[in-house]
Amino acid sequence: MQQPSRAQRGSPPNFANPAHPDYPAAPGRPSKSRYDAIIIGGGHNGLICAAYLARAGRDVLVLERRAVLGGAAVSEEVYPGFVYSVCSYVVSLLRPHI
Q: Structure pTM?
C-alpha cells in the first residue's frame, strides 16, 4: 500500500508558525515521537537526503549539533566583519604529508 504524499496529508512543515502541528513543542526538541527517517547531520548531503525523503512523502527529522545548517557549505563570521567559507573539502586536496 502506497503512503499518501505530503500534499495529500496536508501542508508542509512550517516551523515559523507556532499553530502548525509540526511546530516544536520546546526549543530544540521535536514535537513528534515517530518519524519515517531521522537524518543525523544538517550538512549538504543530509539536507539533500531529507529533501528527497520528504518529497517522497516521508516524515523526516534532521538533527544537527550546531545552530547553523549546511556543514562544509557554510560561511561564518569568525570575527566581526570577517566572513570566510568553511571549505572543509579543501582538506582532502592537501598532499598526504601535510
A: 0.57
- Each of the 98 residues of the chain gets a pLDDT tens digit; together they read 566 555 555 555 555 555 555 555 566 666 677 899 999 999 989 999 999 999 999 999 999 998 888 888 888 887 899 888 877 666 667 777 76
CA gap 31, 55 in Å, rounded:
20
Residue 16 lies in a domain: yes
Q: Is 47 part of a structural domain of the chain?
A: yes
Domain membership of residue 60 (yes or no) is: yes
User: What is the number of domains present in the chain?
Assistant: 1
For residue 59, give every residue at least 6 positions away whose Cβ sits within 8 Å of its Cβ, in sequence order, or none: 32, 34, 35, 36, 37
